[in-house]
Amino acid sequence: MLQVVDIEGMVEPGFEAVRDAFGTNFTDHGEVGASVCVYVEGRPVVDLWGGVADPADGRAWEQDAIVPFFSSTKGVTAVAANLAIERGLLDADVTVASIWPEFAAAGKEAITVRQVLSHQAGLPLVEGTFTLDEALSWEPITHALAAQAPIWPPGTQHGYHMRTYGWLVGELLRRVTGRTPGRYVRDEVCAPLALDIWIGLPEELEGRVARVVPPRSSIRDALAPFGDSMLLARVFANPSDLFDYDEMWNSRTLHACELPSSNGIGDARSLARMYASLVGDGVDGTRLLQPSTVDAATVEQVRGPDAVIMAESAFGLGFMLGRSFGAANPAGCFGHAGAGGSLAFADPGTGIAFGYVMNDLRFDAGDPRSEGLVRAVFAATR
Q1: What angle do CA 117, 118, 119 make, to 5 degrees?
Q2: Which member of 120, 195, 252, 277 has the lowest number of beta carbons within 10 Å of its beta carbon?
Q3: Domains in the chain, please, with CATH?
Q4: Mind spelling out the 3-state secondary structure of 215-284?
Q5: Which residues are catalytic?
């Protein structure tokens, strides 16, 4: 349903086109509720929100609304992993088994942390049958991943580890920090910048969460005819066909657990602020990662046809790179996109950091909502 909404927030002079593009998302592209934030050289220049947080009751999208942003969570987890590398807790070139001994089973003894972070480990799905409780209680999944064999020789190709990335990287963080990945993110990534980002949402914040609107057409339905003959279909349904984009993603159960690949909840303001802290002089005197760490994390590890998504992808150490995750992105940016349309990144060349989240999930190629916003941002800086 197309709507004209009151856009709230602030736009600095020169960035009015971003407000226009944000409004166009509602009037022309059927946006339901959303927020967008842009930093330039450590300073916010756009911070906008509008629309409806819950179509069921008409609740407005307020300034403090937060929403699941799916695989944009992987960028947050990548920051945490690279921070652990910077602090000497983790090393990209050691084997996973040196940290997680059980992982050496079934021919995985030589897989490195670098290969896990860059989607080369050959573990894009977890084998076995699981209940939802098992999938959300961590150890049943990590035990299964430790025991199983890779589905391609590690390091010979890359393929998007849609959900297993979170368990693999999260277990490494758990073992080297002594904290769950969600706790480590809160303590070491969010606290220094007062970020409103959660991997494992406290119950008292549940009333601020915008309701996810499922896509009008289901990828699951489109992939179903291929069954096990298509790796993407197997990965998307994994594990045990549990994580569909339906009302389950609006449940307290999904919000409360820790899925470092996909159940991050927060706002555009915090995503942009996090990425702004990774470039230039950071934000308010704080850089989450030092320049040398960011340089190492954004070296291209892989580029080319992705064995899972069957399109070109490019990864550094946990981050998506350049235009591989957004046609309007600058070539030198790093960050992560999320299922349904969310997008967050930093561009070291311009000092721009961008965050966009929404509750209306789309799976169209080339989402005009985020692309229009990104184009407006970079047009304003020319």
Answers
A1: 95
A2: 252
A3: 64-369 (3.40.710.10)
A4: CCCCHHHHHHHHHHHCHHHHHHCCCCCCCCCCHHHHCHHHHHCCCCCCCCEECHHHHHHHHHCCCCCCEC
A5: 71
- Any idea which residue has 């709230």 for tokens? 8
- Predicted model pTM: 0.96
How does pLDDT run across 300-333, given as a tens digit for each residue?
A: 999 999 999 989 999 999 999 999 999 999 999 9
Classified as helix, coil or strand, 379 is helix
Angle (CA) 231 237 238, round 5°: 85
In this prediction, residue 240 has a pLDDT band, given cuts at 50, 70 and 90, of confident
Task: Please give the helix or strand (H or E) that residue 272 lies within, else none.
Answer: helix 268-276
CA distance 29 to 24: 7
Q: Strand pairing partners for 40? A: 43, 352
- Please answer whether residues 33 and 51 qualify as being in contact, where contact means their C-beta atoms are separated by less than 8 angstroms: yes
Q: How far apart are CA 272 and CA 373, in angstroms?
A: 13
**Residue 140 φ/ψ, nearest 5 degrees:** -60, -35
Question: Cβ neighbours of residue 24 under 8 Å, at least 6 residues apart?
Answer: 372
Closest to 163 (Cα-Cα) out of 253, 78, 243: 243
DSSP tag of 323: G
